[in-house]
Amino acid sequence: MAEPIVVVGAGPAGVRAAATLAKAGRSVVLIDENLRVGGQIYRQPPPGAERAPEALYGFEAAKAVAVHRALDGLAVDYRPETLVWNARERVLDLSGPRGRERLAFDRLILATGATDRSIPFPGWTLPGVYSLGGSQIALKAQGCAIGRRVVFAGTGPLLPLVAYQYAKAGATVAAVLDTSPFAAKLKAAPGLLALPKTFAKGLYYLAQLKRHGIRVIDGVERFAVEGGSVIEAIRWERPGESGRIACDAVGAGFGLRSETQLADLLGCGFAFDDLTRQWLPTKDAEGRASERHIYLAGDGAGIAGADAAELAGERVAWTLLGDTGGAVDAARVATLDAGLARIARFRRAIEAAYPFPTALHDGLADEQIVCRCEGVTVGTLKYQVERREASEMNRLKAFSRLGMGRCQGRMCASAGAELLAHWRGAAPDAVGRLRGQAPVKPVPVADPVEVA
Amino acid sequence: MTGQFIRLAARDGVEIRFTIDGAPATARAGDTVLTAVLLNRPSVGASEFTPHDRAGFCLMGACQACWIYDAEGARRRGCMTLIEPGMALFTKWVPSHG
After folding, report:
1. B38 CA: distance to closest CA in chain A (Å)
2. Which of A229, A277, A304, B79 has the fewest beta carbons under 10 Å from its own?
3. In this structure, how many other beta carbons lie within 10 angstroms of the beta carbon of residue A374?
4. What phi, psi does A230 have (nearest 5°)?
5. Model ipTM over 0.90
6. Which residues of chain B are within 8 Å of residue A50 when distances are taken between CB atoms?
7. Which residue in B7, B50, B65 is closest to A375 by CB distance?
């Protein structure tokens, strides 16, 4: 075969996939937008900002370092700072340090990861409001806090983790506002015991927040950030109680959403995942997409976390090797599958402990900005739905410009779909999903002309 | 002007001198452009659709809310670009950008 195998994404899934293929003697190109391998959760600081792994990754230091070193001594054609901005059939369009080029592939593994899932709230466009993952990157990759007095808000396992990491690093965390009710966590506890060590770490983070005197407020049903050129406070409400907490920065996130644009451009089939309320490219038990030369692994194929991503990355590499006449280590594959099954049980309990707070969308005022890039408001969306009968996401986009801005719906499409479904009294999967468009991220028009 | 970010972990690296809208500022090797600007200022530029400024949001190259102009007038993602000595950054387009 003349064309290489290409892996997109150098997080835990992509790195393990590339390493497994290289060890089997295959020619592999690993493409990643970041400067160094690790993805988001095991992100490495840029040169000059390095710190001890224990300071950066805590309990996960050994795992992070292992991922960072997984390619050492292997003949992987690793291309950092390179964006795959278009894909079709067996060709990728790249933009990177070498300019623009076209790369043909034989088989493709997509390990494209995830971003925070956002829900709009009053004040979320103010300077000083960051995503939860972004808040973590400021600390991990830059050794900085997003402000002098920070409130973390939202839901998901990242919420107590990032708050704990900030407190441990010496930042002032004014409070943690959790939209998930305490009862949900209690109910999910037996399922969380599927991974007792991970569960114990979660309890440890919460205990440490308490030790630092940080108030964790559960079951928050509404919040709003106040301020103008700087943030002044966050207001919160839950049944029978409300408050106002002075702060100059807010980190907010509501779980994660998979980055699926390339799978979409390549014509892969998608299905709505009820557990995480999002559209995902379909894959079989061995990681094959509906397009048989495409393989899927890691959070880009459904949120399951870094441990699962490592296992799935190696798993699809074995699948690919088997599909192309290579030897497969069946015992190793069985171990990987057993690990993935355990994490899947744990994930179901996590989603139950931190339910996606879709009710947060319902009470948003008409002037609330949903699309950050284009300033599209709830009122504008509502008008298009009620008067022009936009019944489906792509119609809503065409009418309102929601998802048409620079982020291409990464920050707003989830909220748009939840609002549209709510207004139409429909299930979230009934309103469809935004079609992928190239370039999947903005590329400079002035990039040098193709070199290949 | 106070910055939005504060540095928690001391940085040994060399001091890097750069400018924001012509005003001198300093950062450390390993800082992104976004970090470098936000350690000195509350924002990276005006928002096109709100009365308030932008100061980034996702920090992972997805939201595009940290764009800032370089000396040539090209828009750079602040969170994905490392600060370099002598960089001239602009929070808005200026005529010298041509």
Report:
1. 9
2. A229
3. 19
4. -140, 160
5. yes
6. 30
7. B50
Whole-number Å distance between alpha carbons of A82 and A33:
5
The residue in chain B having the minimum alpha-carbon distance to the alpha carbon of residue A446 is B74
For chain B, domains (ranges, CATH) are 17-97 (3.10.20.740)
- For chain A, the domains span 5-114+257-326, 118-254, 361-431
Of A48, A142, A229, the CB nearest to B53: A229
> CA–CA separation, A112 vs B51, rounded Å?
34
pLDDT, tens digit, 9 for 90 and up, residues B1-58: 789 999 999 888 889 999 999 999 999 999 999 999 999 999 999 988 888 999 999 9
Which of B5, B48, B82 minimises the CB distance to A138? B5
Contacts of A63 (CB under 8 A, 6+ apart): A42, A57, A306, A307, A310
Q: DSSP states of A344-365 as a string?
A: HHHHHHHHHHS---THHHHT--
User: What value does the CA radius of gyration of chain A take, rounded to a whole number of Å?
Assistant: 22
Q: A5-114+257-326 — its CATH code? A: 3.50.50.60
pTM, rounded to two decimals: 0.96
